[in-house]
Specification:
By secondary structure, the chain is α/β, with parallel strands linked by helices. The protein is built from eight helices and nine strands. Helix 4 packs across helix 7.
Amino acid sequence: MKKSKASATIIRPKAKKPRVVLGVTASIAAFRAADLASALSKAGVDVDVILTREACRFITPLTFAALTHRQVVTDANEGVLDARPMHITLADDADLVIVAPATANLIGEYAHGLAPEVLTCILLATLAPVVVAPAMNGKMWLHPATQANVELLKKRGVEFIGPEKGLLACGYEGIGRLWPVADIARQVLAKFGISSEKK
């Protein structure tokens, strides 16, 4: 009697989700970073949010934890992850790092290799592509020091999205607004071949 062959089931590993580190700095536009974290998470991206010390005065870690279902890292809770300093693990595991909003201070620290906080440590340690979305007063953005720092970072391969013109929180009108969140999300997702359009 001929034995029938047992049907074999091939178990394929799940495709690895893209992993993005989202850095949030001390700007009034920090609340819009919550929408960005939400949009990326809903699109199937693992989002690790890093808040600077001063960013925590504008928005809480709890907001991002609820939207991403992941631990939010600040200087207050940075420790060891996977037997390595947390900032090294995050820097190594990131497929992309985006800072949105990015202040003039953060841009200056990054350009000059200063790392006083977890976010700047990650920026200096990562080999992943880095995207920066600035938000600040227009005069601060146009200041020669800020523009020199931006050009320096661009030469090193950092991509900038925005800022755009409009009414600023400080009362001035001009350049300095955070680029629209939907457009930032679209550009980030496109790097992973993910469409951000609603089906």
